[in-house]
Specification:
alpha/beta; 12 helices
Length: 325
Amino acid sequence: MEFTRLGRTGLKVSRLCLGTMNFGPETSETDAHAIMDQALTYGINFFDTANVYGRKVGEGITESIIGRWFAKGGGRREKVILATKVYGQMSAEEWPNFNRLSARSIVKACEGSLRRMKTDYIDLYQMHHIDRDSPWDEIWQAMETLVQQGKVIYIGSSNFAGWHIVQANEAAKARHFLGLVSEQPKYNLTERTVELEVLPACQGYGLGVLPWSPLAGGLLGGIIGKEAEGRRASESIRKELAKRREKIEQFEAFCKELAEEPADVALAWLLHQPPVTSPIIGPRLADQLAGSLRALEIRLDAAALKRLDEIFPGPGGPAPEAFAW
């Protein structure tokens, strides 16, 4: 396994991050525990979750599954860089202050995550979405308190615009606080708009980039080849494929020329993007996790990267050059 620093911090994380969103809704607790054990065996030390993952399955929510895995001991918690998120509604009851990023919500949500995961600290506590109603001084005061109490070590964001990253870190700097150290955006070959503003902001402020949906929900996972084998995709993926079939056909044909699996090439492409720290992979089965490791070995030369740009053109580079002189 390859390791790298998380943004401008001294924290070392694996180049692949284990996403756990499927644990509970799609993957049984037994299989989830086996996947996490396997991840450690492969050297993956970076696990990502969220307080809202799996909340529809009652007590089997994803954080609780992770907590029961930590409780098995064997150094599991100590070996893992644990990232979770705050923002979403946890209760089935709609009630003010049960979500978002008020200081009260942040503190209560953190307590809930710690309890469910049977740990006394979170390595990376990420804001799952921007909250335009909560002032940055309030948000940072709450986060500073959690850091001072040892409940949280680093703070990150997810789904932020570039200017949100600037706002957040300038407000943190005024408080002499470290601020955001990572951003988790939707980023893959089919979705590259973050190259305009978000990635330059991350580079400017020293944030690690943790792309979610690196395979575009399965669209980049060899869907046409699977279709030919009689394997049926979900309705949502079939709709996406109908809109992008020509490009996906070109992509899978190019992967065949490279003698590599489409999913591995899609992950490898992300790993070749300088701002990217660790793409988040979300296996439902243990063999899917094993297959992802191949991406670490693939080296895409300039010609291969150029061909992928031709198939899936980005916005043209960072702003403003992408749309102005």
